[in-house]
Amino acid sequence: MKDQLGQIVRFGLVGAVNTGTFFGIYLLLHPWMPYFLAYTLAFLLAMVGSFFMNTYFTYRTRPTWKKFLLFPLTNVTNYVIQSAGLYALVTWAGLDTRIAPLVAAVVAIPFTFLLSRKILVPGRGAAAGAQASEEPAESRV
After folding, report:
1. Which residues contact 122 (CB under 8 A, 6 or more apart)?
2. Other beta carbons within 10 Å of 35
3. CA 78, CA 84: separation in Å to the nearest integer?
4. Can you give the pLDDT at residue 132?
5. Which pLDDT band, with edges at 50, 70 and 90, does 1 fall under?
6. Residue 138 backbone dihedrals phi, psi, to 5 degrees
């Protein structure tokens, strides 16, 4: 339980950094392209950073190519929830396109935590740590 609480706190910190990174990229791209394309590119770039921050810091496991390739699956749900929220907030609620991505991101946080934990830490407790240390070196990213 204590380990899981630590993961949740670390996930929150990584999420804050990742959200700041995403939002900064989004704001840089927003003037140069349609808002939804800027959103998508910022999301993809931030997802790569999120993978490494979550493997090393949140879940304290080694990044591998397998995890790297599976990690976007954790973000599919996040992307769908955020995209639907972004569209609804801009189109139906009239929210400013510079602010709407942040509001939509808040709703997706619990889903992202649970799915990323399942991908990055496939086992539970001591078994997860043992499994992480048994990964072959050539499979590491």
Report:
1. 128, 131
2. 16
3. 10
4. 43
5. confident
6. -70, -15
Give the Cβ contact number of residue 134 at 10 Å.
Answer: 7
| 103, two tokens | 């509001």
d(CA 3, CA 59): 9
DSSP string, the chain: -HHHHHHHHHHHHHHHHHHHHHHHHHHHHGGGS-HHHHHHHHHHHHHHHHHHHIIIIIS----BHHHHHHHHHHHHHHHHHHHHHHHHHHHTS---TTTHHHHHHHHHHHHHHHHHHHHH--S-HHHHHHHHHTS-GGGB-
In the structure encoding, which two tokens stand for residue 86, read together?
């972004």
By CB atoms closer than 10 A (0-12, 13-18, 19+), residue 76 is exposed
